Batch of 3 targets.
Target 1
Amino acid sequence: MNIIIRMVLKTVAVCMLIVLAGCAGTTPQGRNTAIGAGVGAVGGNILTGGSAVGTVGGAVVGGVIGHESTK
């Protein structure tokens, strides 16, 4: 079981690095939008106890706040 967990964690880490490398050329506004959506999704998930609606709602609100924070 520990081998499977380690393999999954390594796979997630590699995927995150690939995604972050793809974001290297984005504008500050695009980067802030993505960060806001990620933080909002995590916050919405935690506040609603794992509800999909809360997660998506948090991502939307966080994305809008991140998008508007550079103006």
Target 2
Amino acid sequence: MESTAHRPAWKTLLAFAIIYLVWGSTFLAIRIGVREVPPLLLAAMRFFIAGLVLYLWVLAQGERSPTRRQWFSTFLLALMIFVFDYGLVFWAEQRVPSGITAVLLAIIPVFMTLSEIFLLRTQRLTARLALALLVGLGGVAVLMSRSLNLGGEPIDRAGAAALIVAAMSWSVGAVLSRKLFLPQSKVMSSAVQMLAGGFMLFLAAAARREFRGFHPGNVSRGAWLSLLYLIVAGSIVAYTAYVWLLHHESPTKVGTYAYVNPVIAVVIGYFFGGEALGPRTVLGTVFVLISVVVITTAPVSKPQPALAAKDKHICATSIPPQPTNRS
């Protein structure tokens, strides 16, 4: 991390404002886009174009292109992150409000922690973690329940299920990324992941026959502007600000976007997307965010030495829960 002595405070504030507001607003942009453009095709255009731009820019800066082994790892990771995670997110936003989508995706640290405790066995289940996990899952239940009399309609079950699977896929991808041989440059790694993910999303869109009946001329200016916003602001500008912050601020401070983005998404969805903001949404959001804050700030409690030795063939070090990066 570089010294802050000669860095203007406005640059840091601007970078935080970008990752907070831009990433928080991309959920509404997705919802606007999928009203007129097939979801996987929209996701494919977003990530392929953004990845290509970043890839060419990084090459122009003198970075080396990934090796064959790194490309293989990139495609494997992109399958989990972009096809299964983002593909399901874009599909689900045809059914689920943008703000609720952001809230449900905030449970990614819950699945990360569960995978560490029960699969990798690199973290021990404490009373604090158990309570936080229950609170997070309770928030999801509040949003989905049809029996609680909280006002407002519960979210679409198919859409909610898709988002939960998407969150699980991201969690698996995050764990997998620690094992794979990826480019050392964060920007190059992100660029090729988006490029590979966009390419596979095009194939998935073709498999779902999304190209049939799709006529670009019938898409409104608003939908095209939403795609442009996702490419330029969401995947290039905001990611650049994110990488810059990682080099100048502590990861804990940068990771606060995981708590702020869902709130921004709910507020923007309410004021600009006409989405409902009733007791159900508020209560579910509060439960999920409390869970995320507790989980991501809790000290890591490693398993007993005997258990760790037994499972050292699985993973040698603890992998802390990572906040979702919706670049």
Target 3
Amino acid sequence: MKLRLILLAVGMFLSMNALAANPVVTMKTNLGEVMFELYPDKAPKTVANFLQYVSNGHYKGTLFHRAINKFIIQGGAFTPSFQYKPELDPIPNEASNGLRNERGTLAMARTYDPDSATAQFFINLDDNKFLNFHRPHPDYYGYCVFGKVISGMDVAKKIGAQPTAAGGPFSSDVPVQAVIIEDMALTSDSVADASKVAETAEPDKPSKKTSKRKKDKTHG
């Protein structure tokens, strides 16, 4: 009996440590605040890269330059005048980590080259299965999920629902009212320390078939 209690206590301790391992980042925009939990155990290089951009202030003053309702919102590269901010070297694609592009998840944007992600990220507003890893080929490698929204999904949806038009180098999908990341900071080293986390991403109604427009908007 005593041994069972010891094993139970050890198991609880390990579980608590596992929970505490996930950092939390808070993003403040002019439309509200969003909180992310990151998964360094699943995407160590991607999380380290993202946190480096967070710590050096790269995201402060950048736009959400792509907003497609019930698909994704994407940002992290351009200033309000559409100047492209300097970036670090591209990182390896960790999309094969088992995490899926489900509603409320945080993922890296990239070009056609699977290993081309730098600073741009996106939030999935729907379950986007066609963005998942399928096999190691450029057409099927997918987009790396490395975190999820744990608070502020209503803000993400509000950004996605903004009226859009052409802007800067883009022919469409740019919010007419500029959506600006005012600040991005590491809130805590763990989910357990993020005491004000309240809202979680609740599932929407099942989506219909993926439109061609969505398929054309997954790169860059």
